Amino acid sequence: MKKKITNLALVNNKTYEAAKTANLHHYDISSALQTTLDFNELIAIFCDKIQAMIPHNGVLYRNPLFNLEYHTGISTRHSCSYSLSLEEQSLGELKLMRQQRFSDKELNYLETLLCCLIYPLKNATLYRQALQMAYTDPLTKTKNRTAFNDTIEREYRLANRNANHLSLIFLDIDWFKTINDSCGHEGGDTALTSVANLIKDSVRGSDLVFRYGGEEFVVLLSETNLEDAGIIAERIRMAIENHTLAYGLEILNMTASLGVSSLRGNDSIESLINRADSAMYQAKMNGKNNVKLAK
Questions:
Q1: What number is the average pLDDT over the span 43-47?
Q2: Using CA atoms, how far apart are residues 60 and 129, in angstroms rounded to an integer?
Q3: Least confident range of 87-91, 219-223, 235-239
Q4: Fold of 13-134
Q5: What is the model's pTM?
Q6: CA 243 to chain CA centroid, nearest Å
Q7: Which of 69, 88, 215, 216 is catalytic?
């Protein structure tokens, strides 16, 4: 009978205890990261869990795929940055900052701990992409009505809690049926896409654009009063009026009617929406191609 040869690894008690501690830290971090699919919460949990092992004074996380940035703490002289990815999928960049330089030992340990963060970020990416598909109008690439219903509830609560302004712009393309009749539905789709792009080009980065239904769009403007919202609405109206769209042999000169409302102290979500919708209808009745502010 042949003698079986076994390779044995020799470890001392100190090495064993260190490995056991590292595994416990990994398990603790991984368990905590399984509680959310929100990017900001994932980064906050991860950085809180590693604070005792790798002290830091500031954190910056950027994810260009979703135009997302999370920043907490202070910016300092020394930092370490990691571009995170899995299977060629970018998961953003994480930067830790503090007053003293990070040691090689700390950086090596941090790199092992980052393994706990990769798959939760991947899951958050898949979840966010699924939400984007569910909340995006496939034709105009604006947010859809489902997204509007969810978003306005959140913005309404925030505005009331913080005593901030909140305004709505309702927009309807004038004579849209005529465009469909003369150019067909493909021409109508081209007109809708063009108007959506003109709206997005005319608003600020913080404003949100939704296709409410048919040829109707909504712009949600946080921390914006009625007067300022009216200025933005007029800018949108002029952009559409001054744009000439060529479709086949047809030249389309489009206009739009817009209604604007701003949150009042006794408003519900429904009354805020209804006032903007009514103002838009009044703009239609007043000859189209104009902006009406809800008083």
A1: 97
A2: 22
A3: 87-91
A4: Beta-Lactamase (3.30.450)
A5: 0.70
A6: 29
A7: 215
